[in-house]
Design brief:
Blueprint: E1 19-21, E2 27-29, H1 40-61, H2 63-91, H3 106-117, H4 130-135, E3 149-151, H5 160-163, E4 170-172, E5 182-184, E6 190-192, H6 193-197
Antiparallel strand pairs: 1-2, 3-4, 4-5, 5-6
Length: about 200
């Protein structure tokens, strides 16, 4: 009975594996194995870089929502500017706050402006900057102030509000968007204070 021939032995390429024969007949692999893991220096460098990136992120993260809310704030100011222009056309003069109310009661001042422009499509919410509303954490204080844009006071002459093109109609009550308070002009254009005074 004839047996089947055996398959040829497996041959490995000589350049991939080197065998070192020791005197006692034991063989070990002479090709060094690659080092696994990271050194402490490499880990420290990565941690330092992540720390710097985190510090930069947290420094910028507070400003991002403020910048994102600026267009909504500008839209509010334009709506009020349109309401003021409609009031001027309808009444023939700028809104005249009662003299006995000036500087006496902030709540009455805000309510008066809101009521004056409400018939011209300016809702109470339009007077509120979204950034100020978000930053007020005290729930009892969120209703005040209601007016976050201060209108300029003009006399009763119908042309006075248009006499100076650079005389603001509205000014935001604070630097809420990172470039100074927003300023609204008679033509409806809006610029931040830093741009108006030439600060970079």
């Amino acid at each position: 009975m004839v047996s089947a021939p055996l398959p040829p032995p497996l041959q490995l390429p000589l350049q991939q594996t080197k065998i070192l024969v020791l005197p006692r007949g034991k063989a070990i692999r002479s090709t060094p194995l690659p080092a696994l893991g990271f050194t402490i220096l490499e880990i420290a460098a990565v941690v330092a870089i992540l720390g710097i990136l985190a510090a930069l992120f947290f420094a910028v993260s507070d400003r991002l929502p403020m910048r994102a809310e600026a267009p909504k704030c500008m839209a509010n100011m334009r709506s009020i500017q349109v309401g003021l222009a409609a009031y001027l056309q309808d009444k023939g003069h700028w809104p005249q706050e009662p003299v006995d109310q000036l500087g006496n009661n902030e709540d009455a001042y805000e309510d008066w402006w809101i009521d004056e422009l409400k018939p011209y499509g300016v809702a109470e919410a339009t007077w509120m900057c979204p950034t100020i509303k978000r930053l007020v954490t005290n729930k009892s204080a969120q209703g005040r102030p209601k007016v976050h844009y201060t209108p300029t006071m003009f006399d009763k002459h119908p042309s006075t509000p248009y006499r100076w093109s650079t005389q603001p109609w509205l000014i935001e009550i604070g630097n809420m968007h990172g470039q100074g308070a927003l300023i609204c002009y008679p033509d409806g254009s809006i610029k931040p204070m830093d741009e108006v005074v030439g600060r970079d």
